[in-house]
Amino acid sequence: MLTLILSIIILVWLIFALIIDLKSREIPDWLTYSLGILSIITYTIVSIESKSFHPIISSIVSGIIFAAISFALYYSRQWGGGDVKLFISLGLAIPLYPENLLQFFSPNINLYFPLIVLTNTLLAAMIYSLFALIFLVIKHWKAFKEEIKTNNQKTLKIICISLAVIIFTASFFLDYLQSLYSIALAILILITPYLLSSTKAIEKTAMIRYIEVEKSLGEWLAEDIIIKGKIILSKSHPEITPEDIRKLKIHKIDKIKIKIGIPFAPVFLLAVILTLLFGNILFLIF
Questions:
Q1: CATH assignment of the domain containing 248
Q2: Are strands 230-233 and 208-212 parallel, antiparallel or unpaired?
Q3: What domain range includes position 244?
Q4: Which of 92, 100, 156, 201 fits as disulfide partner to 63, beta carbons 3.0 to 4.6 Å?
Q5: How far apart are CA 40 and CA 125, in angstroms?
Q6: How crowded is residue 109: how many other Cβ atoms within 10 Å of its Cβ?
């Protein structure tokens, strides 16, 4: 019963995170920390009741796995700090499928459960990013159309077309299932240059803007700040800190160019819902 209650809390907390992230592009610490603490408390109690260390150890191991992935995405500048904290808390919260939900759903749990959550998160991210990209392209169509002309990716297109043709030709000599995978791979390779061009174009037209230094805490720097040939702030460490704001004020800089990321909290909510309802989505697709 405790894990069922925790599942409800997870969904409610993720809805809060989604609303706040969409409105302010921030995920508050109270939300992420409270979810992590509640998860550890829940699995500690479950371990005591079941007289087994398995639930709490599973929670900790899952949290460590999610933390490793989160920090990799953070240091590769894909996620912000709020996304990292929320994902780690999510790892602590759902190391196992809640047994009480099996009365209502018949999910496919054919893999290590945190791995299923990670796989579904990746699929949810792909779906969400595609729709977000389409929305931004439509919203900024004129600027996008002009920008994409300057980013043709000619060399990459030639390479990808050649690879796609080779893989597609090879598919005729494979069995049915392998042939389907090969054709899907060929199509994916074929559209890759266009996806990259579109992503770069929409980034320049819709996801870069100037902001006042006073309001820049936690934002991501889009370009190096250089004064008299010296780099004051580097975009290789993009997240603006209080110390960075102090430096900018010292040099009397009023506005800076920042990169606006797509709010990622909706992906976490979608991934959890899909996981609780269906289990391994990838297995259902293939």
A1: 3.90.105.10
A2: unpaired
A3: 208-259
A4: 92
A5: 27
A6: 15
Q: Where are the beta strands (DSSP E) in 168-254?
A: 208-212, 220-221, 225-227, 230-233
Whole-number Å distance between alpha carbons of 107 and 109? 6
Closest among 215, 205, 209, 277 to 240, alpha carbons compared: 215
How is 38-53 classified by DSSP, letter by letter?
HHHHHHHHHHHHHT-S
* 79 vs 66, residue with greater confidence: 66
Please indicate, yes or no, whether residues 202 and 221 belong to a single structural domain of this protein. Answer: no
28/66 same-domain check: yes
Tell me, yes or no, whether 143 and 185 share the same domain.
yes
Tell me the pairing of strands 255-259 and 208-212.
antiparallel
Number of independent structural domains in the chain = 3
CA 63 to chain centre: 16
Is 278 inside any structural domain?
A: no
The helix or strand, by DSSP H or E, that contains position 15, with its residue range, turns out to be: helix 2-24
Which tens digit of pLDDT belongs to each residue from 46-75? 999 988 899 899 999 999 999 998 888 877
* Tokens (6 digits) for 171: 């598919």
pLDDT level of residue 217 (50, 70, 90 thresholds): confident
Residues 96 and 11 in one domain: yes
Angle at the Cα of 258 from the Cα atoms of 257 and 259, rounded to 5 degrees = 135
Q: Which among 82, 104, 126 is the end of a domain?
A: 104
Asked if 37 and 94 sit in the same domain, the reply is yes
